[in-house]
Amino acid sequence: xxxxxxxxxxxxxxxxxxxxxxxxxxxxxxxxxxxxxxxxxxxxxxxxxxxxxxxxxxxxxxxxxxxxxxxxxxxxxxxxxxxxxxxxxxxxxxxxxxxxxxxxxxxxxxxxxxxxxxxxxxxxxxxxxxxxxxxxxxxxxx
Length: 142
Known about the structure:
The chain is mostly beta strands. The chain contains one helix and ten strands.
């Protein structure tokens, strides 16, 4: 299956194919600062399954920490995706892909949360161990 999405103005379009590797919410300071929101909803796809189908020349980028290449439309500023080349995956914000059934699996960087979320999803202090985090969960009493 292929899902299509675009930036805020529609000048840049992307397509993702297959199934996402993961979905969830990130509460880290970088995601909050970049998005202007208390947390973001993400979908993770294998790099080979994400393609820019229109407006590639309008994509700008910013890499603050050396591991995450944030991509946006230079025409409207709309966030598009974050390339994680060392992990071989691309993070596409859930809102960019309206036809994806968003089924979050966890909260990441919940120790940095500024907004409490009451749900039954695991809440990682940072990230799962499989992607370089501690794998530790936030204590339910926190």
